[in-house]
Fold:
Amino acid sequence: MTTLEVRGLTKKFHRFQAVDDVSFTLTAGRTTALVGASGSGKSTIARMIARLVRPTSGEIVLTGPDGEPVPRRAYRDHVQMIFQDPFASLNPFHTVEHHLARPLRLHGRPRSEVPRLLEKVSLTADFAARRPHELSGGQRQRIAIARALAPGARVIIADEPVSMLDVSIRLGVLKLLARLQREENLSVLYITHDLATARHFSDEVLVMHQGRIVERGPSDDVLMRPQDPYTRRLAAAAPDPEARFRQGGQP
Amino acid sequence: MIRSGKLATGLGLAGLIVLFGLVGPLLTGDPATIRDVGLTPPGGEHLLGTTLTGQDVLAQLAHATRGSLWIGVLVGVMATVLSGVFGIVGAYAGGIVDEVFSLFSNVMLVIPGLPLVIVVAGFVPADQRGTWTIALVLAITGWAAAARVLRAQTLSLRNRDYVAAARVSGERTWRVICVEILPNLLPILASQFVFAVVLAILSEAGLSFLGLGAANSSTLGTMLYYAQNGFALQREAWWWFVPPGLVIALFGGALVLINFSIDEIINPRLRDRARRGRDVVAVEAEIAPVDDDAVLTVRNLNVVYQAATPVHAVKDVSLTLRRGEILGLAGESGCGKTTLAYAINRLHRPPAEVTSGSVVFHNGADVDVLALEPEELRQFRWAQLSMVFQGAMNSLNPVTPIRAQLQDVLRTHRPSMPAAQREERCAEVLRLVGVDPARLGSYPHELSGGMRQRVMIAMALLLDPQVMIMDEPTTALDVLVQREILNEISRLRDELRFAVIFITHDLPLLLELSDRIAVMRDGEVVEYATAEDVYLRPQHPYTRQLLASFPSLTGERGALIT
Amino acid sequence: MGYYLRKLAFYLTALWAAVTLNFVIPRMLPGNPVDILMAKLQQRGGSVDPAARTAYETLLGTGGRESFAEEYFAYLGNLLRGELGVSVSAFPAKVSDVIGDALPWTVVLVGLATLLSFLLGVGLGAVVGWKRGTWLDALVPATTVLSAVPYFWLALILVALLSSGLGWFPLNGGYDVVLDPGWSPEFIGSAIYHGTLPALTIVISSIGGWLLGMRNMMVSAMSEDYVLTARAKGLTDSRTMIRYAARNAVLPSVAGFATSLGFVVSGSIVTEQVFSYPGIGSKLLQAVQNNDYALMQGIFLVITIAVLGANLVVDLLYGLIDARTRDRSTVS
Structure:
């Protein structure tokens, strides 16, 4: 069982403290949601775990299925990332095939697995020859998910994976992620500003505010019965038509 | 059409000149042969006449063209490689490497090139000035501008998510640069190469004309040098002097045309497009009897993008906005909701065109918005109907303070208002939206996103309009800030009784905020009812689908995961 | 570090680089300039005492007798004292005097022509961009093709047509030689009369670049939200065009001034030669043709300093017209 543990993670940009002493653990078969407003430091955490940004201090320890720490070189076989903007995360110059075949090759897998990957994200094999501009937002994000799976990753960091998509296809992509998580026994870090999907699609929730985790726990506990004042404000701010019509009140 | 015309002309002309330089010297005789037919005008045996010493101008021109092209290509390649190394590699590496490379490029850029070349050429004895020396010096003094352009572009590319994704996949740095970044820089590299070639040919011509060119070389510049020293123009031997310059000008012009086309590929906004005379066609102001309480009536409005295949963006839309009501307009990207909003205020731009329908504003008398003359339309805007756009970030002019942008409205619409009163009104609207009037002197970038949107709302209130159109005013904002702004809008509406058309993809937000909601899909209003009916009794399947797309925070958990 | 300090530091670095380049070039390239200079000096009847030789060696290199550092500091010292040596082509005048006589001509000619070209190009570019889709679009390729014409060729054609042919302008020179240089109205009039054609050449050849750059930025700015807001606000067209679109579109042209100024200065050197204009460009060529290395280097330095100075002024101005720059640099 692969686990990723984050201990005392801190990132400073010049004088600005983006992430301040954050610790948590991702375990296989569980989805952890990291919620917070933009600028709260959640994307910086994603980028540190994906090794795109170097932490100022703290450590990220990845334990392999054998219980041994995964060596630095093999880190990317295990940890992959899905980006927010599907229109920016695929190179307009290259085909879908390139986007999938490269990570396969880099991690010692045959190119012939491309159709299987496409099938995993509910796309047909003929998508391989297309270029990003021929795809819809939802299709692009599926390709991005397939790319993250290509190296055989066990830990997936999904940074606002649906916030740039049209509302009617968001749930489809989230359901796909949830299905893959169960089928492949992945650990998923779901980063979002949307409390509702965080609650429905994750087992555990971490609430971030100004670089710190202010509240954590099982998702229902945190979002239905928030203890921290900031979490309460967040939960109260989300639009809730239920309150207006079912309980008869006017906003 | 015009675009491909430019490209075809450019490529054709450049191709012809290159062909002339390649093949010409094989077909014409020895350019150095001296005959006793000095300064023969064009015609007969010598198509372009002869020089003072009877050399054939056409033969000289062919050899000189070849020489100039050779220099151009040499310098072009070297300068592009240099600019690539300093621009792309530096920008990708970042940190201190970028600092040093960029400082170096900028220093090379501000040190004037030709004077430096002249000084270097002056120090190198004439017999040691070979073509390669000149080319090298021109390349060294000519790469910096391109490096700056490439650096800016690479800096933007290297922050794209697909580059980050490639790094996460484990791609090596050189592969990320060569395979992920470089292909996307190709248009810019091509344009910079073309530019370097033109510049090199021009500079070499200048140098040779001054007698500082490569020894024993034959270029268009040396030809002009000999023509000038042979007093070609004073002897009225235009056929000796004009052709070399003309070849340079034509070749440069051709490459410039090619560069236009490349620019248009890089930045599609630059493409030529035909301007249409009117934004509204075929409008009959059939003002049907309307609701007494209505402030704005839209009837059967159609908007079409007149492209090669016309796109019908708004189809037969009819809406009534009552005094003081909030009308929600819901829909996904591309459903036509923004086009509709712009068409109501006639802000749509060509090729968008209102093909039929009416927009009538009721304020005492009925105003047929689509029939307003430009000056009437200008006066109508903001005074009766103001707008708040999605990107408060970009809706404010970044280079002037808030004060100037608020006062602009009053200066234009209330020219007689005294300055002190103007200032007071600006401060007053800021206080209304909860912004400290001391912020009037601030620039947009000094304000937070929420603050900027408040300023936009304050601006929309300046003239006490009857109607405010808000296009995704809170989408770019954080949940908490969004909540504050929404509360602010509800409060102001209650106090000031203006009507709002609120556009967003966020249906739950509309359900909470609006009185009535119109759901749009593919240009059509598929559902139009009170918020309560839309929520409790949705009629159209699409409305139901949209409603189901927003899981409720408080609802049953786990129902979605199947 | 503040925006202005950063800019100042950059230009000091650039100045140091130019000064050092000036020091390194004669030492790196083949040939023995000091010997050539001494021979020339002798021909002109100048003193060939060791002091004169030392002065040139400080400038151009001792051939390894002194260490590089010693030479370098002696050279910097001379520069600081304004000692650029003696010109052999204008013997016995000092290099600094030769430059001092020629510089005002060039500064006025190139300065005015550049300013005119910038204002015209940016103004026309703004209008062409704003009125996009009309016949004005044709101005863009037309003026850009003009900028691909060699300056000197255009200058000579203009001279042949307008001066020799029609007699509208003088053939060459900076003023009527019968007049005494001074601030008399006749002299100034004559200088303007003589400067018109060279200035015209520079304007015609350089306007295209400004126009194209401004037009492209204008087109981009017009699709920005703040222009849309300005239209929605019911502002007049002219106010929207000038205060919103053009005000933003002009920024890159100002920021890119350095690139363009280099081209203009380069072009004007050759133009001066064509018109035998008494400016610094003709003097540079005269120096090159006569192997007057001291004068050559002095002129290169002065041109560089002038270009750096102009860019510094423009950059400082840029800080004034775009508040974002000032704030951004305090963060990073």
